[in-house]
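I need you to check the entry underneath: sequence plus fold tokens. Let me know what the token row says about the fold.

>
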Amino acid sequence: MSSMDLPFIGRLTAGARDAISDLAGVTVGHCTLAEGDVQTGVTVVRPHAGDPYRDRVPAAAVVLNGFGKSVGLVQVEELGVLETPIALTNTFSVAAVAQAQIRSCIAANPECGRGLATVNPLVFECNDGFLNDIQRMVVGEPHYLQALANASAQVEEGAVGAGRGMSCFELKGGIGTASRVAGGHTVGALVLANFGKLHQLRIAGAPVGETLAGRRASDASPEKGSIILLLATDAPLDARQLRRLALRAGAGLARTGSVFGHGSGDIALAFSTAYTVPLEATRPMPALAMLHESLIDKLFEAAADSTEQSILRALWRATPVTGRDGNQREALTDLL
């Protein structure tokens, strides 16, 4: 297997971009901080071009392993909607990015928290402390706003944004994305990959990691990584169905070799672009038929395949990074 042989996962076709942005209105932006011991950043996924505080997006999340410090999941579980763009960053920057989301919402909606309801920020994290001096807590509001302003349908992958300092299977990890079309609907995935031991790595079912691990000294330290798995679909699903879809991201994750380790924060969230829910009770609620349950299997397959593909894309697109205290992560393609 050469560095050019990125395998295509599954039997379904990909969308036009093979990215989460194949869903109409979904865009992704990064702000990357890469200087010396600082190797980190912010990634933002916008579910549509409007204001999600006023036009909320149906969503649901699943915690595969809860070693994580995310903000906003409790209310998503209760109400089944997103109220802000989805933000990704490092573990110690969650609070700063959540505050930035709140300030951004207030700037666009001055009555937020006064005449209108408060806003539920939504921030996910992985620990990039091997490559990034996480104690410096350099990420702030300007970086979130920059990532938001950079949001585009052209999704950059690899060691960018929140993925800058992330490791995957003891190699360089980061951001990856993919999409699959099934049953007339599209499912797109985006991952922040920061998990796994090298010997566990499987590529399209092949135990590549065992071979690579045999070439270097054994690392007996426990697996402490994490992954954030985001799914978007244009299928009309309610929050309960979206939770079922989010769970299938775990199937794609497992295929790459993950065992959802004790110290791993593995969280999946799925949202639908088929409709929005208004903030104000005076506006009409959406009236559309949800997808019948017997037709959802194809979406499950698309979710698993696009997730697995996204993780491989994160590995393939990543470049080597040297960070804190000279710590290094090699790129998978260099080893292959």
About this structure: The chain has seven helices and 15 strands. The mean pLDDT is 96.
